[in-house]
Amino acid sequence: MRPLAAAHPETSAGTKNDRFAFGSNWQRFLAHVDEERIAEAEKSLRAMLEVENLAGKSFLDVGCGSGLFSLAAMRLCAEKVCSFDYDPQSVACAQELKRRYLNEASHWTISQGSALDADFVSRLGQYDVVYTWGVLHHTGNMWQALENVVLPVAQQGMLFIALYNDQGIRSRLWRGVKKAYNRNAVWRAIIVPLFAAFYVARGFVKDVITLKNPITRYRQYKRSRGMSYFTDLLDWLGGYPFEVAKPEAIVEFFRGKGFETIKLNPAGRGLGNNEYVFRRLSGKVAK
Length: 287
Prior knowledge:
The chain is an alpha/beta fold and 287 residues long. It has a domain at 22-167 and 240-280: Rossmann fold (3-Layer(aba) Sandwich), CATH 3.40.50.150. 43% of the residues lie in helices and 17% in strands. The protein has helices at residues 22-29, 35-49, 68-75, 88-102, 118-123, 142-149, 169-181, 185-209, 216-219, 229-238, 247-256; strands at residues 58-62, 80-85, 108-112, 127-133, 153-164, 259-265, 273-280. Strands 3-2-1-4-5-7-6 form a seven-stranded mixed beta sheet, sandwiched between helices. The longest helix is centred in the C-terminal third of the chain and has 25 residues, at 185-209. The protein is globular, with a radius of gyration of 19 Å. The model is unreliable at 1-14 (pLDDT under 50).
């Protein structure tokens, strides 16, 4: 059973004082965006959606962050791309990427809005592909956000979503770390070097045991959806609000909304994201 919904990210688990500065993190990431990262983002979309391109399809990027995947959708020949984010700095990042690569593209629109605002989401229209990766668990009201992202999915449309895996007490402990990170600069000064050193040391030991070059994991990190290691590290350490869900709960939720599960890449025993692709069945009405 899913938990009762909270009120709103600004008034519940994610007040303006303790929300992670996602937009600031994405602004740092912009300096690393290049053709190789864009190509990796395109590859990620093609692999999960099992398509060669998005020609003739519309694409909605919910919580667009840097705008990298909106740009990837454009590069994959999407007929229409709409991007939005709650964080104005993230919106600015997406606008900057558009300016750099596709400044004249009138069929890519970018705006500020909340996934928790059902009226706003409804006004966006219907889309063949709705994409929201690692976003809704940071809204402060994940289940309401999940309700809302159903609205813009067209009949036979696909929903590509990623949400943090529920690892029980480990997830609860990480929620405490993330909340402390956003409390003040003192906690950040403790948490960042402590965990950065831990992850580097753990990776080093693993690479030595497996006879791999310890530097390779960082050089090749961009192959993970075109992302940056340090950007993802800060996102993980500070990403708050923070909610989690077991795969079976998410699959059951969308089944009740008239969706079939096309693909599920589970995080397994890890703390990362479970990735899902759902298809909306014709004639099914959301409950």
